[in-house]
Amino acid sequence: MKSIDPQHLSIKENYKFLTGSIIPRPIAFVSTLSKDGVLNAAPFSYFNALTSNPPLIAISIGRKDGVQKDTSRNAEATGEFVVHIPDESYIEAVNQTAANLGPAESEVELAKLTTVQSVKVKVPGIAESKIRMECVVERIIPLGGESDKPATDLLIGKVVHYHIADELYQDGRIDAEKLQPVGRLAGSNYVKLGETFSLDRPK
């Protein structure tokens, strides 16, 4: 077994080990509005739930040379965003939104996705998504890098409204097989749900 000190690795080498080991990773497809009203959307695979009381979720949004991405900057400016769960039906469109566009350009228009009005936030949602969560910013925490050039923003949001497709909703639960979620692996690789199994938790 290899024994490796991460301090002896480059940023890229550490990234490869993390993204190749922590798999599959859920994907947050996040929409935000700029101060000028431009609808931004981008996928992030450093994403998970934090607590259900209240419902908090977290997304790590990398910076480039210490400069915030549109998603972090917009969320910080407006205090709102919407998280969508990508599934097999529109994952190719989600991938298109990862294109490096300027702040005045909309990835939603580029990917020809359909917008839908939200209930409790001003940021529109994406109609193609079977699950979306309207969120308000709980906290944004710069992490890593250097003091004047953080490596990432940890965006923590409180879910203030859920939208769940009728076909997924089963007695207060979500049918994962009908959702057909897509997860992230390393490089350009993704994964579908695949075979599932159950294990009883020890008492």
UniProtKB/TrEMBL annotation:
Superkingdom of source: Bacteria
Needed cofactors: FMN
Record carries keyword Flavoprotein: yes
Family annotation (SUPFAM superfamilies): FMN-binding split barrel
Domain Flavin reductase like: 20-176
Entry keywords, A to Z: Flavoprotein, FMN
GO molecular function: FMN binding; oxidoreductase activity, acting on the CH-NH group of donors, NAD or NADP as acceptor
Pfam families from the UniProt entry: Flavin_Reduct
InterPro entries listed in its UniProt record: Flavin_Rdtase-like_dom, Split_barrel_FMN-bd
Coiled-coil region(s): none
PANTHER family: FLAVIN REDUCTASE LIKE DOMAIN-CONTAINING PROTEIN, FLAVOPROTEIN OXYGENASE
Family of this protein: Belongs to the flavoredoxin family.
Stated name of the protein: Flavin reductase like domain-containing protein
